[in-house]
Amino acid sequence: MTVPAADELLFLPLGGAGEIGMNLNLYGHAGKWLMVDLGIAFGDDSTPGIEVVMPDPAFIEERRDDLVGIVLTHAHEDHLGAVPDLWPRLRAPVYASPFAASVLRRKLAEAGLTDAVPITEIALGARFTVAPFELEMITMTHSIPEPNALAIRTKFGTVFHTGDWKIDPEPLLGEVTDEATLKRIGEEGALAMVCDSTNVFVEGEAGSEAMVRANLEKLVKPRKCRVAVTCFASNLARVESIAKAAVAAGRHPVLAGRAVQRMVEAAQECGYLLDFPECVAEREAGYLPRDKVLYICTGSQGEPRAAMAKIASGEHRDVVLESGDTAIFSSRVIPGNERSVGRLQNELLARGIEVITDRDVEIHVSGHPARDELVRVYQWVRPKIAVPVHGEIRHMMEHAALARGCQVPETVLAPNGVLVRLAPGPATIVDHVHAGRLARDGDIVAPVQGEALRERRKLLWNGSASATLVIDDQGQPLAPPRVSLHGIADTEGEIVQAAMAALDEMLADLSAAERHDNSRIEEAARQAVRRVVRAHLGKKPLTDVHVVRI
Fold first, then answer.
1. Same domain flag for 183 and 320
2. pLDDT tens, residue order, the chain (550 aa)
3. What residues does 446 pair with on adjacent strands?
4. 386 & 438 share domain
5. 55: part of which helix (H) or strand (E)?
6. What is the pTM of this model?
7. 293-297: strand order across its sheet
8. Conformation bin of residue 352: beta by default, left when phi > 0, alpha when psi is -120 to 50
């Protein structure tokens, strides 16, 4: 399906449905497409050397003349982080709240795209048109300033796209969820609700940031040595809570990490955190007594280049933690990051640093709705169709069951690449499209399943081997074969010797015609080396063969 018809409304997720992170949602109507969010996720052990992964926009890139706009719900990386990398492929106008626009402009400047991307700032609660769609920003509560849901209106009715949200009566930063507008949408008659599924397995409610602030103050005050607290840099209410806990304990707060420094700057530019405690610069904090400093650090998810990882390894230029100091993780572990966070915490513990997490003290609340909050919003909005997103398949399936329990007439399970017709008629899956993954690899963006990254994964698990054969024009050897192994244990040289013997045998077994064919020699040599390594170690190394004919 290339062009959305005038008499239909389509929904297509290309990221963030069937996974947590890298959100990219498309709505199609009257020949045009609207994109909601364009985010990233972070690499893991399955993507060696890759820090950032993002959705492949190939489907909409082929139709970019029909892409009328990119609307960003809020400033989290998994909702706007891919704009600098992917906007040149799309070249559509961007719409965002003032804070999200401020964060995005900083990212675009780093990418060399200053003033290249047309950004329209949309005031909180405002209505605006991106024809043929009529849109309304709806204030929600989340773990970042200015989180927005969207009311997307067409002649078929209103789609309520939640973005990330929770219900917090004391958010500390920003406004409470706009309950009145949500109820109004329900009274007008909502066609569909496309909703966050992250915490659908969590009973009750997410909890309030005010409770976390009080607990952090109690936790920091009795400490006698240095304290470092890590959290999501974008959780500015939490950053402020940590800074205020430092001041209450007679300590000077220090912002450690570029991401948290940029976020505070963006917030203050937009009128938030104007009474933020005065901070000491990283390079000067080392002169403070150990009981007079508190570091607010990036790296709560074990990111190797973030401040907390550098501190734990002793590689940070300005910040040191020693035995007797305390590291506090005021965050939850994002699914998939368990190993990296575990490594980081073990490294800190091995240096004699006390580690405190949300398992020990209530120092984190989620920015996503638990079950009671989901039920409440379904009761307010009363959609005809529930479309769970922002979760793994198990989250989405449980969310669909919850929606049915809330008497929602229709539910649709639409993982990435599933094209859904929301109207007219019952919600129907009408097609499946490509929904791949791209990786930022150094300064380029490449397919996750492309040849280069496939070879890197093979190297990670199996190592590599190279062989050089020097032969004459008749294919007869002029010197013994040379074999090198990389990432393959061969302390006695036994595998190399066996591979060299196998290459001699391979050449002797080739026919005269085959010995004149370099490609045939290369393939036979590759197979011979791989057989030897597999026989010794059970591995299939990535193998290169060089034939030198003299």
1. no
2. 568 999 999 999 999 999 988 999 999 999 999 999 999 988 766 665 677 899 999 999 999 999 999 999 999 999 999 999 999 999 999 999 999 999 999 999 999 998 999 999 999 999 999 999 999 999 999 999 999 999 999 999 999 999 999 999 888 888 999 999 999 999 999 999 999 999 999 999 998 899 999 999 999 999 999 999 999 999 999 999 999 999 999 999 999 999 999 999 999 999 999 999 999 999 999 999 999 999 999 999 998 889 999 999 999 999 999 999 999 999 998 877 898 999 999 999 999 999 999 999 999 999 999 999 999 999 999 999 999 999 999 999 999 999 999 999 999 999 999 999 999 999 999 999 999 999 887 777 878 776 777 777 777 778 889 999 999 988 899 999 999 998 888 877 899 999 999 999 999 999 989 989 999 999 999 999 999 999 988 888 889 999 999 8
3. 439
4. yes
5. strand 52-55
6. 0.86
7. 252-256, 293-297, 227-230, 326-329, 354-356
8. left
H-helix segments, 91-195: 98-110, 179-188
Alpha carbon of residue 402 to chain centroid: 26
| DSSP-derived 3-state class of residue 410 | strand
Same domain, 174 and 215: no
* Sign of the alpha-carbon dihedral angle for 72, 182, 332, 18: negative
Domain span holding position 78? 9-204+366-447
| Euclidean distance between CA atoms 144 and 345, whole angstroms | 25
CATH code for position 120: 3.60.15.10
Angle of the 98-110 helix axis to the 258-269 helix axis, nearest 10? 140
Same domain, 146 and 241: no
DSSP helix/strand/coil, 11: strand
In this structure, the number of other CB atoms found within 10 A of the CB of residue 31 comes to 13
Contact 471, 477 (CB under 8 A): yes
Strand order in the sheet with 94-96: 119-121, 94-96, 67-71, 32-38, 24-29, 9-15, 418-423, 428-432
Are 192 and 308 within one domain?
no
Same domain, 156 and 225: no
Q: Do 186 and 61 sit in the same domain of this protein?
A: yes
For residue 361, is it within any domain? no
How far is residue 365's CA from residue 476's CA, in Å, rounded to a whole number?
72
Alpha-carbon distance of 349 to 324, in angstroms, equals: 10
